[in-house]
Amino acid sequence: MNKLADLFLESMHMRHPGERGRYVRSELPIRANEMGLRVWNPGDPIQNVGRRILVGVAEWVREQLELVDSLYELPDRKSQLEIFFLSKIQSQSDFDLYIPEIGKVY
Fold first, then answer.
1. CA angle 17, 23, 24 (to 5 degrees)
2. What are the tens digits of pLDDT across the range 48-90?
3. What are phi and psi of 85, to 5 degrees?
4. Residue 92's CB: how many other CB atoms inside 10 A?
5. How far is Cα 72 from Cα 20, in angstroms, rounded to an integer?
6. Strand order of the sheet with strand 38-39?
7. What separation in angstroms does the CA of 21 have from each of 17, 45, 47, 52, 102?
8. What DSSP string describes the chain?
9. Residue 54: closest CA among 8, 97, 6
10. Pair type for strands 38-39 and 52-57
11. What is d(CA 5, CA 24) in angstroms, rounded to the nearest whole number?
12. Which of 14, 25, 35, 104 is surrounded by the fewest CB atoms within 10 Å?
């Protein structure tokens, strides 16, 4: 199964860093869906059974995608793992939509 971090390797043939970044950003939701990971956005329902782990991911950082891949592969993971993309956050109030009462983020 392809992993999220594999998108960086798949884009290495592209010459321009901006092109590689656009490729990774456009393919991430598709790859997450193929893996069974849920990409969560404000307004989406939140499961009310069991535990939920919501991870904000800087999709331009390969190591963060590797972390999500590792969490996903935990053999005894019983929690619903969901991700959101930090590129969608433009202001402090946007953070509050994803994580209410988080306070000031620097």
1. 90
2. 888 888 999 998 899 999 999 999 998 877 888 899 999 888 8
3. -100, 125
4. 12
5. 24
6. 38-39, 80-85, 52-57
7. 6, 29, 31, 28, 28
8. ---STHHHHHTTT-SSHHHHHHHHHHHHHHHHHHHT-EE--TTS----SS-EEEEEE-TT-HHHHHHHHHHHT-TT--SEEEEEEGGG--SHHHHHHHSTT-----
9. 97
10. unpaired
11. 9
12. 104
C-alpha to C-alpha distance for 3 and 50, rounded to whole angstroms: 25
CA nearest neighbour of 68 among 20, 21, 14, 8: 8
pLDDT for 56 equals: 92
| Six-digit token string for 72 | 């996903």
Q: What is the pTM assigned to this prediction?
A: 0.82
**What distance in Å separates the CA atoms of residue 2 and residue 43, rounded to the nearest whole number?**
29
Tokens of 89: 């956050």
